[in-house]
């Protein structure tokens, strides 16, 4: 199971042949409409979401264990992604296990939102990223998976709006939230230590 989107994921290691196909030209700058034109399976549609403006919904029932859709798009290096999206708050980047490349998502899979109580999971298998149903999904439901983000800037909370009972308030993984809390405490202590002490009269 994948541990994160956005420069992070664990599971199966990408194959050599897959890495060769990653050497593609740098894609266009962010264009939401352009991403919508790359369609997926006919029963998956992009529509209004209660979680975050738009999401991916299914018009047909999906059985647990089904490989629902592949997360596709140009494969670029993290350095290219940083240069491409440094000034854009929203991205659709999915990190691969080689730690060097990401998928610049397009198609319906790129519109699948995060949830702390998801009905799918993402898994990298032989260099390809699949969205897989982890329970039976009824027609009309929105597809979701847990992004389990990590390695973001400390000043980026990446808030979650999934509304689940077990919502942790952030798209970061539980482990990353613990790490970030410790890092923020250390940062605060360093700032206090660097402040001049008040002299007593």
Approximate strand percentage: 15-25%
**Number of continuous helical runs:** 4
Q: Give average pLDDT, whole number.
A: 81
The arrangement of helices and strands along the chain is HHEEEEHEEEEEEH
Tell me the overall shape. globular
Order of strands across the main sheet: 3-9-8
The CA-CA distance between the termini, in Å, is 61 Å
Tell me what the structure shows.
With 201 residues, the protein is an alpha+beta fold. The chain is globular. The protein is built from 4 helices and 10 strands, in the order H-H-E-E-E-E-H-E-E-E-E-E-E-H. Strand 5 (93-95) and strand 6 (101-104) form a beta hairpin. The protein has helices at 16-21, 32-36, 78-85, 174-194; strands at 44-48, 54-58, 67-71, 75-77, 93-95, 101-104, 113-114, 120-125, 128-133, 144-145.
Secondary-structure blueprint:
Blueprint lengths: L15 H6 L10 H5 L7 E5 L5 E5 L8 E5 L3 E3 H8 L7 E3 L5 E4 L8 E2 L5 E6 L2 E6 L10 E2 L28 H21 L7
Parallel strand pairs: 7-10
Antiparallel strand pairs: 1-2, 3-9, 4-6, 5-6, 8-9
């Amino acid at each position: 199971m994948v541990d994160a989107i956005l420069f992070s994921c664990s599971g199966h290691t990408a194959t050599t042949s897959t890495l060769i196909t990653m050497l593609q030209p740098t894609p266009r700058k962010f264009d939401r409409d352009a991403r919508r034109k790359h369609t997926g399976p006919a029963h998956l549609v992009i529509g209004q979401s209660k979680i975050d403006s738009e999401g991916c919904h299914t018009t047909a029932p999906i059985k647990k264990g089904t490989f629902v859709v592949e997360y596709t798009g140009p494969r670029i290096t993290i350095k290219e992604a940083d240069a491409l999206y440094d000034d854009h708050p929203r991205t659709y980047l999915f990190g691969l296990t080689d730690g060097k490349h990401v998928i610049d998502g397009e198609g319906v899979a790129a519109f699948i939102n995060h949830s702390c109580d998801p009905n799918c999971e993402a898994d990298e298998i032989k260099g390809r990223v699949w969205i897989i149903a982890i329970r039976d999904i009824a027609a009309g439901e929105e597809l979701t998976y847990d992004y389990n983000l990590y390695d973001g800037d400390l000043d980026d909370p990446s808030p979650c709006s999934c509304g689940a009972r077990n919502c942790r308030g952030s798209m970061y993984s539980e482990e990353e939230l613990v790490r970030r809390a410790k890092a923020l405490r250390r940062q605060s202590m360093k700032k206090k230590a660097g402040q001049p002490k008040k002299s007593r009269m």
